[in-house]
Amino acid sequence: MTEAVGSAAGDGLDVVVVGGGITGLTAALDLAEAGATVTVVDRRPLGGKIGFAEIDGLTIPTGPDAFLARRPEVADLAARLGLGDELVAPAASSAKLFRDGVLHPIPKGVLGIPSDLDALALSGLISPAGIERARLDLDLPADRPHTDESVGALVRRRLGDEILEWVVDPLLGGINAGDSDRLSVRAGVPQIDAMAQRDSSLLRASATMTSAATGGPVFLTPDGGLHRLLTRLVESLERLGVRFVHDHITGLRQTGTGWSVDVGAGEGLYSDRVVLTIPTPAAASVLDTTVGCTEVADRLRTIDYSSVALLLLDVSAIGVDVDDQMSGVLVPRGAGLTVTAVSFADHKWPWLASPERHLLRVSIGRRGRDEWMALDDDTLLDLVIDDLSAVFEAAVHVNRSVVTRWMSALPQYDVDHHDTVRAIDEGLRDRPGLVVTGAWRDGLGLPACVAAGQHAALTALTQNDTR
């Protein structure tokens, strides 16, 4: 529970949390530990995009498989759940970038901003002309606008098109399936924003930040898999008496003394507080039913989403020897393939390793590239196999596969996203007892989502009492 609130802060408080993803479940945990009576409403399996599938008795993630270690929120949550001493880093961490039929090492730096341009030149990933264009960044005058801008505008201006399209964009696209030419620097990539504020030269700022970075793993997950974190979290909520309603919300009304939440076929849940952690289209639909929240709903609808698919492939042979330190491959837009990333789950996580096969997690989905959505699973699998054969220049033999489609799953942080969030918050000021949050606010990664849940719980506990 957040340290800012005592364990009795929620005594006598009824709270309905709508949404059973990691944000909602974290909010529910903090609220219940503070003494509130909590109900979680979600018709989907708990965990949201923390999904899993079984292949040969192995539990394999169909969403994220680890969390960013440089932020403390998930590691702290794991410690609260008794998993703090069981966090492990990937066994393999050598990722590649695919260009023109060649697999290149991902250059050292910060989210694709190189820290050593000479080493990048030797790799062959970027053309000599592209290297010389990027080198101009060292002498260009400071030119950062006072307003927000896209990552594409910043990187193209400082480093040129090649660095953006063949290094930065594929790295960021692997995170949010977005478009760097629309992605906000300030809201979407705060690390690059910090670099641009530190030094007018992105190359110098990247070198400084890279050299100053402490050692340690970049990613962590519980030994045995991320599903253990979700299982422990749900078990803790059950012990705290949290009630789960496996249905969908159909309406929300302010009652004067609190809130009425309509669920499914008509069950009414009455509460002092409501925490909405569902995606913005669903949240907007709900808020349209509350008096005075139409403007907030309209703001929420302006936040776009990308759809993605993840294919789990049991591959008996790739046709070539693959270095067991290879953790995966990123595929830039310019490669002309549908696949965006390939992860060797058996290389990264020892509990999935076998000498007889590879377990691949293959990602599909880019903002503005939705052709794959109309394909059935078999056709999509055939397309993926063709792409993998091109990437590895060899035949790929798939024994078993699982296709998971995450439709409208990843919110996009367009330029001036922070202004949109501020307007939403301002529109809810006269609705005490209602908290609206989710992955659309402050970040897509698991740490950001956990932080959003914790902040939502704190807000619900410390708002002016409406009881």
Please describe the structure with a list of short key phrases separated by commas or semicolons:
single chain; 467 residues; alpha+beta; FAD/NAD(P)-binding domain; protoporphyrinogen ix oxidase, domain 3; Polyamine Oxidase, Chain A, domain 2; 3 domains; 7-stranded mixed β-sheet; 5-stranded parallel β-sheet; 22 strands; globular
How many strands, which pairing sense, and closed or not: the largest β-sheet?
Answer: 7 strands, mixed
Radius of gyration: 23 Å
Helix content: 25-40%
Read across the widest sheet, the strand sequence of neighbours is 8-7-18-19-20-17-21
Number of E-state strands = 22
The oligomeric status of these chains comes to single chain
- CATH fold call of the largest domain: FAD/NAD(P)-binding domain
- Give start-end ranges of low-pLDDT stretches: none
- CATH class (first level) name of the largest domain: Alpha Beta
Give structural notes.
The protein has 467 residues and is of the alpha+beta class. The protein contains 17 helices and 22 strands. A seven-stranded mixed sheet has the order 8-7-18-19-20-17-21. Strands 12-2-1-16-22 form a five-stranded parallel sheet, with helices on one face. It has a three-stranded antiparallel sheet with strand order 5-11-6. Helix 2 (73-80) crosses helix 17 and helix 11 (280-287) packs antiparallel against helix 12 (294-301). The longest helix has 17 residues, at 446-462. The radius of gyration is 23 Å and the shape is globular. The mean pLDDT is 93.
